[in-house]
DNA sequence: CTATTACATGAATATTTTTCATGCATAATA
DNA sequence: TATTATGCATGAAAAATATTCATGTAATAG
C-alpha cells in the first residue's frame, strides 16, 4: 500500500471531501475514490461514509486515522531529511587522520567547516598511516588524510608538503646546525616509532642506506618527542608534528632535505556523497590558504 | 513508494544482507536489490554500500533508517488495529436511546457487553423518539433503540413488549383498580410530554378518540412522574419507565391493554461494521433473557 | 585457481495506481 | 415538481511500479 494513499485518506478526512482532497494533492477525484476503496478493501473495513454532501469518517476510520497520519508524517520527515542530505547541508562525515593532522589541523578545519555547514556532523578516527589506508579501503571513512604517493582507489587532493626534520635535545651539540646530514644519524642514539616500516623516518633512512642505532621505540608521536626532549636520543619527524614545541626540543632540516606529501583521500565510493563533496571542495580551498609563515621552525 | 520497500530496507539494514532480508520477507533477492536501488534513486542518495560480505548502511542510510522504521512501525500498528477492528474486538459503538432505555437497560447492557469485549467503547446519545430516528437516518449512531413499527432503512431487532400504564398519585381513588379504562382519562387532569404528537400516550389517546384534559406539559419523563406523584394529575407512560418507582406513584394497566414495542435498529450502513454486528448479536441474546418476573408492577 | 557467495542487471511479467469518460444519487434551485 | 448542479462510484484503458527469472560479476575462501 503506497504512502500516497494514506495521504489521500488523511486529506479527505481533513477536508471532508474527496474532490477537494484530490485537488489539494493534484490528482483526480476518481483516483481518490479508487484509492480509498482500495484501502478499505485491503483493511477489510469501511473507513468513510460517502454522502452527497461529502465524506465522513466511520469510527473505524477515525481509529485508524492517527496511524495513517503517523505514517504520512514519517514520510514527510524522511523526504525532508533526504532533501537536506541531497543538498549536502546535513549529513555525517567520517574522517580518518593520523596524529599530526588530528592535532594541528583538524580542530581548525572542523571549526571552519561547521561554521559553513552547521548541520553536518563529524566522526573522527585517528590511527597510523596503515590504519587510515585500511579505513579508506574498507569504506569505514568518507575521507582521510594520507601520504602521497598512494595507490588507493581514491580521489587524492594534495594539501601540503611537510618537511621532515631531525629533532634533538635542546642543548645537543648539533642543535644549531642549519642542516642535519642524514648519514650522521647513525652516530646518535635513535628513537623510533613502533611498526616503523611504514613510517616516514624509517623509509627515509632505508632509502639513504643509513642504519640507525635504535635505542627506544614507542607507539606515540608525542612520547617520542618527549624522549628526545629528555636527551635519550634523536629522531626524524615531520615538521607539522612539532608545531608549538620549539621550547622543548631543537629541530633541524635534513641534508638532503626531505618532505612528506600530505593529501586528502576520498574513496570512489564516497565521492558523490553530497556532504563529502562539500568537504572535498572545502579542503581544496583550505590547502590554498596554507601559508608557510605560520611554520614553527623556519630557518 | 510502497511501505514494503521500507520494510525491505529496514530488514536489510538489520540483517546486513539483501539475501537474508529477502528470505525473511518472503521475496526474491533480486526484488530486494531492485527495491533498494529504486529507493536510492527516488531519494537521490546512496543508502547502502554493497559488498560480497553483505550490505552496510552509509551515513545517509543510517540517518534515514529511523524515519523508515517509524513508517514501518506505523504500518504495523495500523494493521494490528485494523485486525482488531475486523475481528470486532475493538471499536466504537455509537448508540442512541430514549430515556427509559437509557436509564433502566443501558447500564446493565453496557456492563455485560464490556465484560465480553473490553476494547469496544461506547458513545451514548439520548433523546426522544424523534431525535433517535434522525440519528439513525443520518448515520450519527451505529445502533439505536426505537419503537416498532418503524419505516427506517434498518435491520430491526424486536426486544420487548412494554406495557403502557396509567399512572396516578398513590392515594388516588382509582389507584386500586386492576385496569384503567382509557375513556376515563378525560375525567382527570392530564400531564403530558411536550412535542407529544410522537409520544406513546398521545398516539394512544388519539387512537382511542379520547381528548385528555391537559393541564401541564413537560419535556422530561421523570418530571412528568414527579408531577403525578405530587397529585397534579394522571398520565400514561410505558412500564419500563416506572421501574423502582412503586413507592411514589400508583400504576395501573390500561383497559384495553396497550403496549409499545421496543426494538434495536441498526442502519444498513452500519450493519456490517464488526463491532456493530457483535452488538446486534449480543442484544438478540439479551432480549431472550428479558424475563417478565422482574417487572415492577405485576397485577 | 576454482568454487562459492552475495549482490547486480535486463527483460519479461504481474500488479497497482492513475486517468478518462461516464453513471448515479441527492440536495439545492427555479 | 422538475431541473440542475454537485459529489462520489465505476469500469476499462493506460501508465507506472513491483516482482520474478535467468543470468552476470566480483570478491573471498578453500
Structural write-up:
The structure is a homodimer of 299-residue chains. With 299 residues, chain A is an alpha/beta fold. Chain A has three domains: 84 residues, Orthogonal Bundle (Arc Repressor Mutant, subunit A); 96 residues, Periplasmic binding protein-like II (D-Maltodextrin-Binding Protein, domain 2, 3-Layer(aba) Sandwich), CATH 3.40.190.10; 99 residues, D-Maltodextrin-Binding Protein, domain 2. The first copy, chain A, is 42% helix and 26% strand. Chain A contains ten helices and twelve strands. In chain A, the strands form three sheets. In chain A, strands 3, 4, 5, 6, 7, 10, 11 and 12 form an eight-stranded mixed sheet that branches. A two-stranded antiparallel ribbon of chain A has the order 1-2. In chain A, strands 8-9 form a two-stranded parallel ribbon. In chain A, a hairpin with a 2-residue loop joins strand 1 and strand 2. In chain A, helix 1 crosses helix 2, helix 1 crosses helix 3 and helix 2 packs across helix 3. Chain A is rod-shaped, with a radius of gyration of 31 Å. The first copy, chain A, starts with a helix and ends in a 10-residue tail after the last helix. The C terminus of chain A is likely disordered. At the A-B interface, helix 4 and strand 3 of A face helix 4 and strand 3 of B. The first copy, chain A, binds a DNA duplex (30 and 30 nucleotides) through helix 3.
